[in-house]
Amino acid sequence: MTISYEKLLELARLDDEVAHSAELLLRSPKRKLLSELEVERSESERRLKVVDGGIGELEEESSELSSESELISKKLSELESAEKKGLGISHRNVEVLAHEIEVLHNRAEEIELRQLEIMESFEDLSAKKEELESELAELDSVFQNTKEEHDSEVIGSRSLVEGLEKERSDLVRELPDEFLPIYNKLRNAKLGRAFAYVMKGVCLGCRVKVSPLELTRLKQSKDLPPEMLPRCQECDRIMLLP
Ligand SMILES: [Zn+2]
Predict the structure, then answer these.
(1) Residue 178 C-alpha to ligand 1 middle, in angstroms?
(2) pTM of this prediction?
């Protein structure tokens, strides 16, 4: 006994719906959005890391300058009290001392200016950091919402496919043993569609015109067992006339 042509048409329709459902999921705009959000997120994270690195460098420089500045004021108060007490003795020594004091004062001033610059840069970077952090939080929340919506799309599609698969398996059970491996192999190779309808002389599996000879064979094939049905010369699918 063999399966009826009507049931093969029904199997082809179910295969088509299962494949279509998987394609819809793959082409889902939410899926696309999720991957775009992931790219955007890693870019923001990269920028945040750069800003954090900048802040770290400023903090390090500032703390080095603070220690230097402490040393300078200690040294200055030593030198200035020596100057006051007239410990220089010779004229030459007084000059050397005064010069040393002047150099230290200049360096202290330099440090003070640089510290001001650092503070300004620090404020800029901190503002940038805050901006990036809120951008990331916003991206996370959009990602989370989109993911939930996409997950429910997946669940919906899965339950639809489960229903279709139940119908399919009833029909597959009726396929003749000789045909089953051909069908399964073809279905795997053709992304879920082993059959192709032929309409107006065109194979809908590959959109290629079927030769008149093949068309005649096809028209006479409805009583053949499925393993004997003609296959498209272009896409190899089993041709069916709806
Ligand atoms: Zn074809």
Answers:
(1) 22
(2) 0.71
**CA of residue 205 to ligand 1 center, whole Å:** 5
d(CA 133, CA 126): 10
Separation CA 190–CA 194 (nearest Å) = 6
Q: How many CB atoms lie within 10 A of CB 15?
A: 21
CATH classification number, 17-173, choose in 2.60.40.10, 3.40.50.2300, 3.90.180.10, 1.10.287.1700:
1.10.287.1700
Cβ pair 88, 94 in contact under 8 A: yes
Amino acid at 210: V
226: closest CA among 23, 61, 65, 7? 7
Q: What is the pLDDT of residues 88-126, one digit of tens each?
A: 567 778 888 889 999 999 999 999 999 999 999 999 999
